[in-house]
Amino acid sequence: MLNKRLPLEVDEKYTLEKIYALDKTALNKMCWLFDVSGWVGDVPRLLREAIFHIPRFAGVYQALNEEEQSIVDFLCDSAGIPVPIQQIYEKFTDFSMKKVDTLVGNLLKQGWLLEGEKLQTLLVLPEIKKTLDKMSAFYYFLEAELPSSHSATFSGGQYLADLIEMAAFIYVEKPKLTVKKFIAKSTLRRLMSRLSEMVSNNWEEAADENLYTSTMRMLLGGLQEIQALQLVVDKGEHCYYQLNVEKWDDFVFSSASHRLLAILSWQMTRINYHKGGSLPFVASLFKYAAQVEGCWRTGASLMMESIVAESTVLFSDRDPFSSEEWLESTVLEPMMYLGLFEKTTAELPTGWRKEEQMPRNFWRLTPLGLSTAEWLAEEKDAGKAINQLIKIDTFSKELDITFLALFDKWRKVLPAELEQQLIVQPDLTFFVPRSTQPYLLWMLSVFGETQIQDYVYQGAFTRNSVLRALKGGASISDLFALIQDHSKVLPAENVLYNLQQWVAAYDRTLFSRAMILACDNPEMATEILAQSKFSKWVIGLVGPQTLLIRPEGEGIIRKWLEKKNWVPRPGVVSGERLYTWLTAGKG
Prior knowledge:
Layout: E1 5-6, H1 16-22, H2 28-33, H3 43-51, H4 54-62, H5 66-76, E2 83-84, H6 85-91, H7 97-110, E3 114-116, E4 121-123, H8 126-133, H9 135-143, E5 145-146, H10 159-172, E6 178-179, E7 182-183, H11 185-192, H12 197-200, H13 203-208, H14 214-225, E8 229-233, E9 239-243, H15 245-252, H16 256-274, H17 279-291, E10 296-298, H18 299-306, H19 320-338, E11 341-349, E12 357-365, H20 367-378, H21 382-388, H22 399-402, H23 404-413, E13 423-424, E14 429-433, H24 438-447, E15 449-452, E16 456-460, H25 463-471, H26 476-486, H27 493-504, E17 515-518, H28 522-530, E18 538-543, E19 546-549, H29 554-563, H30 575-584
Parallel strand pairs: 1-3
Antiparallel strand pairs: 2-4, 3-4, 5-10, 6-7, 8-9, 10-12, 11-12, 13-14, 14-16, 15-16, 17-19, 18-19
């Protein structure tokens, strides 16, 4: 399309409205440049709003090369006033006239400039100058950093503790936790009360939509990845979660480095699932974050510096905040949850918006994250090394050889797993350091009411919590052995006495499903009982003329009764009709 020349006067100042009044199609190229429809609505108002949208404007402006930007910047000194092209020739003497014509032609073609008929004048609109004046403030907000002395708001490293709580809950609440893959809200409420704020935050809104939060899905996915959790569908097409305790034991009894590797492997698999080909970028992210010497960086700053050619991850110039949101939600927050990154927030001035200040997220590596970055930096191909993480067999004996260098670095910063640190007080409350062995935390979660403090895992044994664990299939002998092996000081006698009293109350009665077979008289009942072929179906007499039989034997006994001419009524009678038969004869 040929450039539209306008009857512009050199000594007059022009606005969007004046340009639009001169020619309704003069702004079309600019509308296309800033994603505005030039055909409907109040075009000047819509275009002005689009130009003032600084994140989108920045992307369009950064698409220009440095020479084109310099011409736009020069014309902005006279924004709204037509400037003869001769002044551009005189300003940019380092460029040939032909090169200036080429650069100006490109800017006109894209829609940055408007051209006048007289003396070949060029015009930049005042809105473009106003937005360019705020660009430095915008980039300060986008790429800001804080000194390393700034304290962390979220230190992270909560994943394993939440995973243990989740597994314990599934264990004691088995078998059925879900209907059609969604945990019932009442069940979810009880579970969320046991998990950290990071997981429980915003779960109510997600539950209203029959969804899980992303962090909850991470927990469930992590358990499934280590084969400790399986989704089972019964005959009624109801789904429920089934915990494989043997696989879970394999996981929690492994070393801290093996557990972290298994969790990190799952996380890398998850990131790659959300955006295939992103792992070279993640490797670059770790390496760059390690180079900034502990300074806090915004997600946008980390992302822009970590883009690599071999990755599919690109920084979206037109909407940098969407790119940053993807990085934070998919990579940084999960890595913080694993303990590799930490996060803080700060209020920054926003000279490019109406608001004076806005909160901004900042990130940096933890010591554990730094050790991971060091390992990646020492590998010949960091992208290949991190890609290797998604292909591991969690329980392979070769892990110690394959990841020897990584494990050595992790062991230097991972807290030692403490033994014999459990303290059970006479009131049956207990506490233990969070850095204790996972198996101890697992068992305390099963048998007690627990909560997590900053450095301490605490709770209490109650009658309800102990009975709940026994109903879930736990063994009280395991708890007694645990207390014996891990207590710093053996608990008072009343602790074991109370536990034994609660255990003694369990399994003294039994419910089982059975069927009643009511007869006309005691003789009929006695004859049925005497049939040896019914021995595995008939449980016994519960009255002179009433038998208790197993439900699965109903069909066989019915056929025999019909051949005997003792034909039963169709179906299964219950309620008042059965009561009448047994107390007052046939109803």
